[in-house]
Amino acid sequence: MGASSSMEQPVSAEQRELENIAASTGALPLLQKSFSNLSDPQTNAISVQTLQQCFHLCYEDPVCESQQKPESFPRLLDHLGSSIVDLFFLSEKGGINWLGFLGGYVKCCGRMSTSMSLNILLRIFAMAVKKLGLSSNLEFEPDDADCKINGSLLPSDLLLLLWMCWAMLWNVRTLKSSERKGNLLLPDINHLVLSAVVACAEVDSSFDLWNCDIVGLDVQLPVGKFLNWAITTAPTLSDCLTQYVNRRLQISVLAEDEEGSSESISGDMSPNASQALLLTRGRAWAISLAPRSTITEEILKLCFSADIVGTDENLLYRFVISPLMSSTHGKGLNRFWSNVEGYHGPLLVLISANSEDAYQDNNKARKWIIGALTQQGFENKDTFYGSLGNLYAISPIFHVFSPSGACGRGQGTCIEDVRIHSLPGLCNQVSVGPFSFSVDDLVNIINHKILTGKEKNYVYSHLHPTGRVYESHPKPVGIAFGGTTTNERIFIDEDFAKLTVRHHAMDKTYQPGSLIPNQGFLPVEASISEVEVWGLGGKTAKEVQDSYKKREELFTEQRRKVDLKTFATWDDSPEKMMMDMMGDPNRVQREDR
Fold this sequence. Notes:
three-stranded antiparallel sheet, 35% helix, TLD-domain containing nucleolar protein isoform 1, ten-stranded antiparallel sheet, disordered N terminus, 17 strands, 3 domains, 15% strand, TLDc_dom
């Protein structure tokens, strides 16, 4: 055993260093227990076959939400476990000893920069592809300690890579420890793949984002540009590997009849189960891949729930214009407000709209989806408010617009001004006082701390004033995100009929970029077809809102009733007052002082 052997014989400096690194991640007790269960007592080592079986992942017939499904994907997963072991866990004659077990875990799951962890993920993917007998354009320098990588990816390769990450997370969060197999649902993630294609490849303006065959698209994505895209758009993508390895080791420790914290999914596994909503599993996962925040766990719960359609406690408001489906909560700002009022927590707003393409002869309307994330509930104000938030281009292409930097050019660009560079494949450490940061972590800290936006116009939500007060310059009635008053970057009118999207030059709060495909400088007005608002504050925020609604209903009911017993005499009753006014309204009455 790793724990007992380290006490029986002198501990080497290498073993002490590896144990300290593993302890810094919090995984040392788990590693000691799993090594004790998996190792042979006679050799005090784990056989390669045993460890490969521990990390083995198998789904025979996955259910796919998308029509584009590479047939080689289930066989690719069969080689995941062996690829992890062969790349990182060094084996001797008797198997993998405690030192090799520790070193392998630290290599693939230790603390490291985002670019380094993405490189490790690509190495595992390339190894699995090689074992499958398929060709890959990725090349690694075997003698380089920093795992430098060259080559490119095809869009079909990226689709397999993202699905491999999803499958690991699905296994972690849905499979019981007593089960060896389960069902796998693959989400539609074309919007993520197209985001990388547009960012990494040279595509012209005629590229059709709506009718694109991802599997058959012959476009090379240089790995360096892909890493930059992943660090900006999906920096937590590689977390799936650490979670998967830890979960598999936990299962090796648990007894056969003991269940872990995950729950097996038994809901509707049909491909169209979640497609009726704007927030599909694939879109929710894309949002969760942004930098870690308080809403990440709530988003992941939606991704891996048995039935997204049935999560009524999270879906606060929904409005749909469709001949086959009626609106759930009603149309307009008033109906919207009655459903979101009192919710004090993060909110995700999704809007689906369509605008006719003036350059198309058939004038075909194409739908697109954008979104906004707020860190607090909505308030009825005639000015902008809020603290942080994000804007999203969700479909047909995904992109995140965080609060902008002072230079207004986006995340990572201004870092060059302070001479700090984040190079793919490097795991450099930067010391600041008593602390040590990786280059990627320091880049994120500097972007968050000193590159704050020039403005803080995160959210605007204004209803009609209750009193009839004359206003020479009335404020717009509706919901907005970014920009300024009357020049909002996103504006929804009070009837929820028209959506206006303006150029990012009008907005100094969020990062620049196009929210919709082929967006020009002029404002784009589109017809709204669907609106969804999801509460991401957990059970506490929902319970607080429910209490608020019950209290408001009670007050409303009390205001409707007039208790005559509260009036002492006939002279104080409302009936007497009304009769006096009807009889002689001009009669002079004595005023009591």
